[in-house]
Design goal:
Blueprint: H1 2-10, H2 14-98, H3 101-105, E1 108-115, E2 122-124, H4 125-132, E3 141-150, E4 153-162, E5 166-177, E6 180-189, H5 197-209
Parallel strand pairs: 1-6
Antiparallel strand pairs: 1-2, 3-4, 4-5, 5-6
Length: 210
């Protein structure tokens, strides 16, 4: 029986052979379709993985570039602010030398303070104007200057040379006011060399007793 069945399968009728060939062709096509689909799926997964990897690699670089730009922008702003503040102080010395009091006092805030060389000279703008306007001005030539910025505040100290008094020092504060740097406080003093400090302070004490 097994031999006869085997013979029938091999020697089957033409109809059976055609049916077997058709089924084999369909199975082959189905297998090919499955293989193609799997290939496309794997390709898509691989491309997706590459894109994710590329994005992961790009992100730190993009963040660093943004950070660098922000840092560079801050440095440029700081430099620009300090240049503008230095110009205000240069104009202050120019206008005082020219006795151009309208322009001179426009560089100060309205609530600004001027501290002079005498211990009693702590003036608001009204008092300082009353002192300054009757005079012919004063001249101080810049020798050295330092600026330190903290946001909208700039601290400064400068060494000046006065034809009348020699070496002088100006210190103070500028505040950014309505987009412009304005002087909030200016303190003028005479630096005393250490070698003669006691001599000078002794004279000051004696003058204060009179």
């Amino acid at each position: 029986m097994l031999k006869d069945t085997h013979a029938f399968a091999v020697k089957g009728t033409p109809v059976n052979r055609a049916a077997n060939m058709c089924r084999a062709t369909k199975a082959s096509r189905a297998t090919n379709i499955i293989r193609i689909s799997l290939g496309l799926l794997l390709s898509a997964l691989m491309l997706g993985g590459l894109n994710v990897s590329a994005q992961a690699q790009d992100s730190p670089t993009q963040s660093a570039q943004t950070q660098d730009t922000q840092v560079q922008g801050a440095q440029i702003t700081s430099s620009s602010d300090q240049q503008a503040a230095a110009q205000v102080l240069d104009l202050l010395n120019q206008y005082s030398s020219d006795a151009d009091w309208d322009k001179y006092f426009a560089l100060y805030r309205k609530d600004g303070i001027f501290i002079g060389t005498d211990a009693s000279e702590r003036w608001g703008m009204a008092e300082f104007e009353n002192y300054s306007r009757p005079t012919k001005g004063w001249r101080y030539n810049l020798t050295e200057r330092h600026l330190i910025q903290h946001g909208d505040v700039i601290l400064f100290d400068e060494l000046l040379n006065s034809p009348a008094y020699g070496v002088s020092r100006g210190t103070g504060t500028l505040l950014k006011t309505d987009g412009y740097w304005k002087i909030a406080q200016y303190h003028l003093s005479f630096p005393i060399p250490n070698e003669i400090a006691k001599q000078i302070t002794t004279e000051i004490k004696a003058a204060n007793k009179q």
